[in-house]
Amino acid sequence: MRVQLHYEVYASGDASREPLVLLHGFMGSSLDWAGLAAEWAADFRVVVPDMRGHGRSANPALTFRHDEAAGDILALLDRLGVGTFKGLGVSGGGNVLLHMAAGYPERVKAMVLVSATTHFPEQARPIMRSYAIELLPEQERERMRRRHPGGTAQIDLLFAQARAFADSYDDLNFTAQDLAKITARTLIIQGDSDPFYPVSISEEMAAAIPNAELSIVKGGGHGPIGGERWAAFVEKAREFLRRAG
After folding, report:
1. Rg, the chain, Cα only
2. Residue 117, number of CB atoms within 10 A of its CB
3. Cα-flanking dihedrals φ and ψ of residue 90, to 5°?
4. CATH at residue 211
5. Which of 101, 109, 155, 196 lies at a 20 to 30 A Cα distance from 16?
6. Of all residues in the chain, what percent carry a pLDDT higher than 90?
7. Taking the model in full, what pTM does it have?
8. pLDDT confidence of 14, banded at 50, 70, 90?
9. Range of the domain at 184
10. Is residue 191, in this structure, part of any structural domain at all?
11. Residue 149 included in any domain
């Protein structure tokens, strides 16, 4: 099934710069990365897509699987003539990067995973089942409306897909053997107070991926890179991704 994806490319003069893919989290959009993408265009050719069903991208399947989203992004990169690349993904975007790096290790040179997971643990499933836009503060609801031009129908579908994750077991089901296939240099960032994923998942991931580093954010929740932590995160991620190889 063909999926129409919206994407932006940021490049500062030299189109031959090393490609870097930025993947937003579930219910986010490419707008989440606009400022960072423009800044990092001095170092990379930055590709910033809206994942299927998010932002200005379509999703005719009406369901969301991270493995299918990974296929979408790889097809987009093929269309852009991008072979190997580096990546940065938060939460759902990190899960999509995991699928790409494990399934096509020759494509991903390095990646930063923020609040990604190998599977949905039991502690996350009751939270997923309770997802509803009514639980969000008005400021966050307005943020979602700005990012998803499909309006209420698009946003309601994303919440329904998020609730469906509570009963999903085969989409994210990475074993240590799967992770051992990953050849990308990998930086894993995890908050020690993440209500979805215990630190042990990231510890096991870092142990299984051959060339991985683990950074635990004290007092950090899910996606522990915003607010006062943003500047330090940007510096750390940029330094890691700029390394050769």
Report:
1. 17
2. 24
3. -110, 130
4. 3.40.50.1820
5. 101
6. 94
7. 0.97
8. low
9. 7-122+170-242
10. yes
11. no
